[in-house]
Specification:
This protein is an alpha/beta fold. It has helices spanning 6-9, 13-34, 36-45, 66-71, 105-121, 141-152, 164-173, 183-195, 217-227, 340-348, 378-381, 385-403; strands spanning 87-92, 98-103, 129-133, 155-158, 178-181, 207-210, 230-235, 246-248, 255-257, 262-267, 281-287, 298-304, 306-307, 319-320, 325-326, 331-333, 336-338, 353-364, 367-376, 408-412, 426-428. It folds into three domains: 6-103 and 236-326, ANL, N-terminal domain (Rossmann fold, 3-Layer(aba) Sandwich); 109-234, ANL, N-terminal domain (Rossmann fold), CATH 3.40.50.12780; 331-428, GMP Synthetase, Chain A, domain 3. 32% of the residues lie in helices and 24% in strands. It binds zinc ion (ZN).
Length: 432
């Protein structure tokens, strides 16, 4: 069994909980001292960090969520001065509002260690050539794994998540053995292999680590079958300082949460009450090793189940099921996530478009296809075709520029969608 940090990963429940309590108390003290949001919220509730003298008292603390982060944009949630921050990354909120995440040098060290743990669980070693087909920009996914792969001693190719044909040719010529990507990129790669008539015999690929979006077991089996590889899944919401909070092991029976760095809880999303292990609910995460951007009881919006039973791999770290669903209506198409409200915000700014729309999502081959029906004001709808065409193109362009997704817009008469129930705003026809 390949375990990067056996002292932690094969520790005992008792030792892990002792470490968690020590780190939680240090985190609470730092957050209370340095972050106005935490200090004011705790004061209002009559809580001081010393009150939380056992893990059982964690549920006494208030939740945080995306809204908290957006309201404190850009640096309000930072617990260290900017001179101690060595890296800034960003993610987007439900309305497209940015959230800035900072890292100290220690945070980057923890990040590197975590990505090494994930890659080690995927049996990546010094002899591997690792091609990272993830975004290397502000969102930080590519860099997240880059450092860990270098620490392990693998040969790292900083690729990209665009142009699968070019990445395929690099993969063939550089003799890549491990791919790091979103599952949607692996599907594009399979299409590129067929289009370019590249034989699998000319590729050295043996494994891949997936990140960034949930995928079904059907998709996993298809990718493993078509590329003749093993797939390992990892998980981490983008607003929790990276790179990830959990990884599968070779047994593929859930994702081990890095409990020395994060405390997971499962709550009823309606009442906020803690649910017992084994029950499905919303995952809440408290970071206990982050200096710059500590998050206390952060509501991820992801629905899952925790499993504390021992894993055959030897790790004692709790496992979470792959994400089952969302508490909100976040949508992921071709690896890009967005909220329907973001489409409404874009339409509200375009003259002639009404804020009523319907999204129809389907899959053609390996691509998710998004059609959007948009109501237009009456005077424009009955105007000349050229104007309608311009409006359609303008909406498609605005959505692409703002959200990074390509859509096909169909303009419809005013009030033809207005009566739709909120549940009908999105129709997802993609096979599961
Ligand atoms: Zn395991």
């Amino acid at each position: 069994m390949k375990i990067w940090n056996p002292d932690v990963e094969r520790s005992s429940r008792e030792k892990i909980e002792q470490l968690q309590l020590e780190r939680l108390q240090a985190t609470l003290n730092r957050a209370y001292r340095s972050v106005a949001f935490y200090r004011e919220t705790f004061d209002r509730m009559g809580i001081i960090p010393e009150d939380i003298d056992s893990l059982a008292k964690l549920p006494q603390l208030p939740f945080t969520d995306r809204k908290t982060l957006m309201e404190n944009y850009p640096y309000g949630m930072f617990a260290v001065p900017l001179r101690e921050v060595v890296r800034l990354h960003c993610t987007c909120g439900p309305g497209g509002e940015p959230v800035v995440i900072g890292y100290t040098r220690n945070d980057i060290n923890h990040w590197t260690q975590i990505s090494a743990r994930i890659l080690h669980a995927a049996k990546v070693g010094k002899d591997d050539v690792v091609q990272i087909c993830l975004d290397y920009g502000l969102f930080g996914e590519g860099l997240g794994f880059h450092y860990g792969a270098e620490l392990i001693g693998a040969s790292v190719i900083p690729g990209s998540d665009t142009d699968p044909r070019r990445q395929l040719l690099i993969m063939r010529d550089y003799r890549t053995t491990v791919l790091l990507s979103k599952p949607s990129f692996a599907l594009k790669l399979i299409a590129a292999i067929k289009e370019n008539k590249v034989s699998l015999a000319n590729l050295q690929l043996r494994g891949t680590v997936f990140t960034g979006e949930p995928f079904s077991e059907t998709i996993r089996r298809r990718i493993e079958g078509e590329l003749k590889i093993k797939v390992i899944n990892s998980y981490g919401p983008p607003e929790i300082p990276g790179p990830k909070i959990a990884t599968e092991c070779e047994k593929k029976c859930g994702l081990h949460i890095f409990e020395d760095q994060f405390i997971p809880e499962i709550i009823d999303p309606q009442t906020g009450k803690i649910l017992p292990p084994g029950e499905k609910g919303e995952l809440v995460v408290t970071t206990i090793a982050k200096e710059a951007f500590p998050l206390i009881r952060y509501r991820t919006g992801d629905l899952t189940v925790l499993d504390f039973s021992p894993c055959e791999c030897g790790r004692v770290l709790v496992r979470m099921h792959p994400v089952i669903g969302r508490t909100d209506n976040m949508i992921i198409v071709n690896g890009v996530s967005f909220f329907p409200a973001q489409i409404g915000n874009i339409l509200a700014k375009i003259e002639g478009a009404e804020p009523h729309f319907r999204l129809i999502i389907d899959r053609e081959g390996t691509q998710d296809i998004v059609d959007i029906m948009v109501e237009v004001s009456e005077d424009i709808f009955f105007d000349e075709m050229k104007k309608l065409h311009q409006l359609k193109k303008q909406i498609e362009e605005c959505i692409y520029q703002t959200l990074g997704i390509q859509v096909r817009v169909k303009l419809v008469e005013k009030r033809s969608l207005s009566g739709a129930e909120s549940g009908k705003i999105v129709i997802d026809k993609r096979p599961k």
